[in-house]
Amino acid sequence: MRERRRGGAVGATADGNADWMGSLPPALRSLPLSNLAIPGSHDSFSYWVDEKSPVGPDQATAIKRLARISLVRKIMKKWSVTQNLTFKEQLEGGIRYFDLRVSSKPGEIGQEIYFIHGLFGIKVWDGLKEMNSFLEQHPKEVIFLDFNHFYAMDDSHHHFLINRIRSAFESKLCCVECVEYVTLLYMWEKKHQVLIFYHHPLYQAYPFLWPGNKMPAPWANTTNVHKLLQFLETTLGERSRYGTFHVSQAILTPRVKTIARHLIRGLKNTLVHRNLPMILNWVKAQKPGVMGVNIITSDFVELVDFAATVIALNDLLLEEDESAT
């Protein structure tokens, strides 16, 4: 097996990974985006959650009652936060896929929508504007926004949110197309930079909303790193050859007893720090392509060189192309 080239990933620059897609070699620009290795973040918006706000509607009634105590909300924050970096910082670091869960705020007048993970995060509109500002400055970068959980939202909330998405990105939005047609060259030619995946039947009413089933993201739901890696291998082997993207969620999920045993330590200190090296080693052993990895997500993407490691996998496609010629 040929040793991977040293000296950094294709597309990586001296300034980091802010323009890694635009810097990819010509041979990779015509490959479907579903065949490239793309770094993503899990619960991408959770770098800030509001411990002073009510607990979100994504939580069980018993948790909502307990959370009337401010100390409980402080503990919840330790387990709700899965990222340290803002959207802008994640984008500058090379993250291109964003896992988004959203909710209205019960009792609030109007239809404003917020990010949510146990506790409420920032307004979705503010996050979308931050992303669009980055895209304005980096016209060859492409992002995937995966709206996969909705809470306390009726159709009017959905229409409000979808109009916000349209207002934020306008002509940058890529309408639904055959997945295999969507390459970097295709996106650049049409001046598109954003693919929106919307896991709700209303996607059918808007041509720029891709159905959720085009972005499968199997979830291991385990605290055991060995079970996680086995799950990632199994689901990768079951990946559709054509017609969808694919998310490998390289994340560990705490159970109630995990949280109870390590209340004050939080997610990062209990599960993530200890297991990230093994997860990163799994990433390094992967290969993108038709039946290979596509999007890989992680918690706390800055703790190791996660984005650069995923981007570097695209070198293997380049070597494959060179050997074919």
Automatic annotation (TrEMBL):
Protein's GO biological process: lipid metabolic process
Top-rank taxon: Eukaryota
GO molecular function ontology, one term from the record: phosphoric diester hydrolase activity
PROSITE patterns per the UniProt record, alphabetical: PIPLC_X_DOMAIN
InterPro entries: PI-PLC_domain, PLC-like_Pdiesterase_TIM-brl, PLCXD1/2/3
SUPFAM superfamilies associated with the record: PLC-like phosphodiesterases
Name of the protein: Phosphatidylinositol specific phospholipase C X domain containing 2
Species in which this protein is naturally found: Zonotrichia albicollis (White-throated sparrow)
Name of the gene: PLCXD2
